[in-house]
Amino acid sequence: MTARIIDGKAVAERLRAGLAERIATLPFRPGLRVVRIGEDPASGVYVRNKDRAALAAGFDSATIHLPAETCESSLLALIARLNADPAVDGILVQLPLPPQIRADAVIAAVDPAKDVDGFHPVNAGRLASRQPGLVPCTPKGVMHLLREAGTPLPGARAVVLGRSQIVGRPMLQLLLAADCTVTVVHSRTRDLPGECRRAEILVAAVGQAELVRGDWVAEGATVIDVGINRGGDGKLVGDVAFAEALSRAAAITPVPGGVGPMTIACLLENTLEAALARRSLPAE
Ligand code: NDP
């Protein structure tokens, strides 16, 4: 068997085109503010891509770039201003932050109604209690890809590799809400390959280049690779050994071109959702 490759770039383009169509019908432009602190080069690329995609879809998007030595209280004051600004629907503070700023304090300072990253404890709590809220972009993008791939979800055995606050845990909640039977595995799991082999849906979010070998993948599984790592030759590689998994899986996402483009598209989707919810407008 050779797996079907799930084209995240194409799915993300369709999602963004749908958002642009919806925005064209609105009497206002949803506002997104991305805050970047310091000069982390990877963050620079992400932020530029977010801005470009947001503007192209019709959002009122801007990046606020602060120097690396910015103190926590200045950042919190900026967030308070953005929280109070009626033209701003979504606020995203690009991580990682410099060491003098506590990420938890910053995440908690964003108004949950504008928390388009979905990292605020209120939104994490809503997700876990099955209440409407803003959902973290990467796991939300994974759900879009699974639906696009036509993978049956109710009753499916899903294994999530990784238990981070931004990917693994919300992924567990979303798969559970879709009626999958979910196992979350991590660095203390005893038999990682054995657990993965049981998966009909395998979502890898560990940040370890090609940790998941071909023989960890069940025949016919759907494999979603969230990982973005630099391989030995400097190229981007996922958490899954792609070439090995290709001959076992039924469907698989590539890196790059899989989950990555979906994360930005879902950020825009969240910004539109936040804008509509703040004005009590229907989602459709
Ligand atoms: P974290 O480092 O926060 O979490 C990694 C998780 O993987 C932890 O739960 C950790 O376990 C587990 N883990 C690490 N090494 C192993 C191992 N050898 N065996 C088993 N479990 C292991 O990472 P993130 O969740 O933030 O990101 C994961 C990956 O996804 C990264 O490559 C990141 O770049 C990528 N990413 C991609 C995005 C995209 O847009 N495509 C967006 C966000 C992330 P433990 O908890 O026990 O320490």
Task: Bin the helical content.
Answer: 40-55%
CATH C-level class of the largest domain is Alpha Beta
Derived structural class? alpha/beta
The unique ligands bound to this protein are: NADPH dihydro-nicotinamide-adenine-dinucleotide phosphate
Residue-averaged pLDDT: 96
Radius of gyration: 19 Å
Order of helices and strands: EHEHEHEHHHEHEHEEEEHEH
What kind of oligomer do you see?
single chain
Shape: globular
CATH architecture of the largest domain: 3-Layer(aba) Sandwich
Q: Count of helical segments?
A: 10
Largest sheet: 6 strands, parallel
**What is the β-strand count?**
11
Outline the low-pLDDT stretches: none
Q: Which fold name corresponds to the CATH topology of the largest domain?
A: Rossmann fold
Percentage of residues in DSSP E strands: 15-25%
Domain Tetrahydrofolate dehydrogenase/cyclohydrolase catalytic: 6-117
GO molecular function, one term: methylenetetrahydrofolate dehydrogenase (NADP+) activity
Function: Catalyzes the oxidation of 5,10-methylenetetrahydrofolate to 5,10-methenyltetrahydrofolate and then the hydrolysis of 5,10-methenyltetrahydrofolate to 10-formyltetrahydrofolate.
Protein name: Bifunctional protein FolD
Summarize the structure.
The chain is an alpha/beta fold and 284 residues long. It has 10 helices and 11 strands. Belongs to the tetrahydrofolate dehydrogenase/cyclohydrolase family.
